[in-house]
Amino acid sequence: MRGEEATVPLLFMGMIEKEVVARLAKELLASSGCYLVDVTIRPGNLIVVEIDHDTAVGIDDCVALSRYIEDRLDRDVEDYELEVGSAGLGSPLKIFRQYLKNIGNEMEVSLKNGLKMCGVLKSADEKGVTVSVAKQIKPEGAKRKETVLEDYPFKYEEIKYIKNIITFN
After folding, report:
1. Ramachandran assignment for 118, one of left (phi > 0), alpha (psi -120 to 50 degrees), beta (any other)
2. Rounded distance, CA 46 to CA 43, Å?
């Protein structure tokens, strides 16, 4: 539909449909290096679209997506507020591609059983992740403790959240 912009029906039982917004976002992002992380619709029809990129999300990426979505939604049918932004550095990882992007980074892991740990995200696949945690141990007969890395595999179902640890040097 070049030239004429079509509006998309938004309403589903009085609310804007998350799936419609997600589809619109994916349409535009397919031609860029960015990808959709999440769409949430909060009370008062506040639509929040979160995107990411394997290197960096630019302000131009957010503006272009915001305009694309606004051009295709009909405010006469349902009033809304739209926020488009990048996945924050301290935000929990939400989709598989973010896990792959963060392999090798220092992460905070919180499990559903209450356990928390910090370590390096070593690997990620469709089933779960492996985190390498540095531990201080004193080998038998040694005078000093040594740092050893221990790998901990976790299934996604066990994880409450994983997020980057931000350090300033």
Report:
1. beta
2. 6
User: What is the helix (H) or strand (E) element at residue 140, kind and residue range?
Assistant: none
Taking a C-beta distance cutoff of 8 angstroms, is the pair 72, 7 a contact? yes
- Cα 166 to chain center, whole Å? 16
- Do strands 128-137 and 116-124 pair parallel, antiparallel, or not at all (unpaired)? antiparallel
Q: How far apart are CA 83 and CA 65, in angstroms?
A: 10
1-10, 22-31, 145-154: which range is least confident on average? 1-10
Q: What are phi and psi of 130, to 5 degrees?
A: -125, 130
Nearest to 162 by CA among 78, 59, 143, 115: 115
Q: What six digits make up the tokens of 162? A: 């994983």
Q: Return all residues near 67 (Cβ < 8 A) that are at least 6 apart.
A: none
C-alpha–C-alpha distance, residues 128 and 157, integer Å: 8
Q: What is the pTM of this model?
A: 0.81
Tell how far CA 120 is from the center of its chain: 18
Q: What sign has the CA pseudo-torsion 108, 87, 40, 126?
A: negative
pLDDT tens, position by position, 125-156? 999 999 999 999 888 888 898 999 999 999 99
Q: How is residue 45 written in tokens?
A: 């029809």
